[in-house]
Amino acid sequence: GYMALLRNLRNFDEQKVSNPVANKVAAKLADPDEVARSRQLIFRFYSAYKNAPSLRWGNALEQAMDYATLNIPVLGGKTLILVDTSASMTSVGYSARSTASPVETAALFGAALAKSGQDVDLRMFASYVADHKFPKGGSVLSTADSLVKRIGEVGHGTDIGGALDSWNGQDRVIILTDMQTQSSVGRGRHASTRGYYGGRSGGSQIPLNVPIYGFNLAGYAGSQIDTENNMYEFGGLTDATFKMITALEAGRNAAWPWETK
Question: What is the pTM of this model?
Answer without folding.
Answer: 0.80
